[in-house]
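anyone seen this seq b4? input:
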Amino acid sequence: MFLYLLGLLLFYYVYRWLRELPRVSDKGGKYVYVTGCDTGFGNLLARHLDKLGFRVIAACYTEKGEEELRKSCSGNLTAAHLDVRSAESVAKVAAAIKDKVGQRGLWAVVNNAGVSVPSAPCDWLTIDDYKFMLDVNLNGVIAVTLSVLPLIKKARGRVVNVASVFGRISATGGPYTISKYGVEAFNDSLRLNMAAFGVKVLCIEPGFFKTNVTDTAILSNNVRSLWDKMPQHVRDDYGPEYLKKSLALIADKVAKISDGDLMKVVNCMEHAVSAVRPRTRYSPGWDAKFFWLPLSYMPTCVSDYILTQQAVPVAKSVQ
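predicted toks r here
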């Protein structure tokens, strides 16, 4: 029986691998719009798709990001300035894309732009902290998608949304996980809405990788800054050791579990863009596959216990 089940499992994975191999043709006639291309996944994806022959529209927040991509990529790549929080900026890029793609439409948009700070326990933050991150990580995804959705419908193309394993389980306070849960919900509803138009909507749920989102210096400075700004009574609630524990967790566990091979994520993005039969969801990273996603299916009492023992510092008041 064991060998029979093993054979079935092997057959399934071989079948899926063969089924997912074919790629779309006419890459040179397909435009792909990628946000958040200054660094990290977006930057690598823009370069990778350009090498594969796609006509990439790489949206960057900084002039430096735009200039570096122009220098390192072919003349087929177009770099553009984009602030996903600005309706005017989103509309301006969308109008330029419409002029560029013409009647063929836009093959894909990859919503990659995102930030990870400010992040902290919920009562360390203000509503403005929440609004800032939601405007980038969630409202920005929705705004960019809606701005080019008619062009994607025309091409019967793809929407690729970059969420996170923290769109499945909330292991930290603050707006980051809220924004990623929202991206998951938007992704699922859009997938159902767009199916009738031949548009595929795919979701990337990475685990921990070495990008600005998991940069230990950025995360540590964020925690210190928020701690210093907090009222004394809130600091007293958490206890004097809480800051030290939080910084140790960032320096130790976040750094250790973050994978340096960003191409694991980029290859999933590329597959979502170029495969004839893309997957609905991709979960790059061993921590995503074997820790975070299984944890998200466990009973709450089990997942809460594991998180408080392994991933979340405990405040003095509840020790």
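Residues 32 and 256 are 34 Å apart (CA to CA). The two ends are 48 Å apart (CA to CA). kinda curious what u guys think
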